[in-house]
Amino acid sequence: MTNTSDPLDFLWFIPSSGDGRYLGTERLGRPADPAYFRQVAVAADRLGYSGVLIPTGAACEESFVLAGNLAAVTERLRFLVAIRPGTASPAYYARLASTLDRVSGGRLLLNIVVGGSSQELAGDGIFLPHDARYDHAAEFFQVFNKLMETGEASLDGKYIKAIDARLGLPPVQQPRPPLYFGGSSEAGIDFAADIAESYLTWGEPPAQVAEKIARVRAATAARGRKVRFGIRLHFIVRETDAEAWKAADELISHLSDETIAAAQAAQSGQSDSVGQARMQALHQGRRDRLEVSPNLWAGVGLVRSGAGTALVGSPATVAARLREYQALGIDTVVGSGFPHLEEAYRVAELLFPELGIAAPETRLRPTFGESYLFGGGGHVGNVRGVSAS
């Protein structure tokens, strides 16, 4: 079990397919814009997030290229970059990963993505059935890991064939950047037990997360291994619970029933992901059953594939819910909120103090020592604090 007094490793999300203030509408939407992604990354870097998740997919900016761009404008931030076996050879991905780790100064993390939309997989030239994709990925990482760790690898496998593959320049991290993975199927859990250093789950109710963690722990123990655990969640944090629930309602206030039905049909018809099916089962596309566990709200999943739940509440309430997950063994959180720039500030300013997460130190002094109150940014500056007599 994880000590719930320990600070969580808290990452944020780069919305590399676009962002917005409301779900299911063009109203106040933000298109995919590399300059905006840099804003989000710089904010996360200065606010105390340990890293950012960069997704993969046909609708997203390419994850490795975007991470290289963001590494140049940040100092401490790590990059959890999606890698999809099958879209390129393990030798080519090893060169990408080693170079990114080198140019970022050892700030690369790798998020293995095996499943997803069957339509998108077909577009990428991947036609393997569900379980076979994991067999293919296992061979892929035999070659990838050996290259990253030793600079050379060979394999005459069922899916992967590499003859005297070479990697000329090693990564900064030794033996290589760590591997993160999330999958709910039996094949996915077996793969995680063999390959991953960190196992990620989407935000299901605590009892379901506990059951999944127990399955992964048993599988890794049978192999003489251990993994760490993380959770992927959205956050709607406000100063009071009432304000937070109002914000949750507003997030889907422009979402029509027709849009929900179309999104749910697409998710069901295009994906063989067990994790996606578990997400949809939480709400079944219905607006009247969105609080699926105390303060765990499934409204995001009405239209968003993948992670579809948010923790909603005041800082104290959300912190208490996170401590429940932490008691199960979760030590890493990958968070997000809509829109991602503003919500990165809200989560850091409201929730981080409750979790014991400190912002990075700065050498800039706000005053000469006196107490000042924010005065609205007028030309005479702030207001000198007055002590009560």
Automatic annotation (TrEMBL):
GO terms for molecular function: alkanesulfonate monooxygenase activity. It is an enzyme of class 1 (oxidoreductase). It catalyses: an alkanesulfonate + FMNH2 + O2 = an aldehyde + FMN + sulfite + H2O + 2 H(+). Residues 9-331 form the Luciferase-like domain. GO terms for biological process: alkanesulfonate catabolic process. Its EC number is 1.14.14.5. InterPro entries: Alkanesulphonate_mOase_FMN-dep, Luciferase-like_dom, Luciferase-like_sf, SsuD_RutA_monooxygenase. It comes from the Bacteria. It holds the Pfam family Bac_luciferase. Transmembrane segments: none annotated. Keywords: Flavoprotein, FMN, Monooxygenase, Oxidoreductase. HAMAP family: Alkanesulf_monooxygen. Catalyzes the desulfonation of aliphatic sulfonates. NCBIfam families: alk_sulf_monoox, PRK00719.1. PANTHER family: ALKANESULFONATE MONOOXYGENASE (PTHR42847), ALKANESULFONATE MONOOXYGENASE-RELATED (PTHR42847:SF4). Belongs to the SsuD family. This is Alkanesulfonate monooxygenase. It comes from Paenirhodobacter enshiensis.
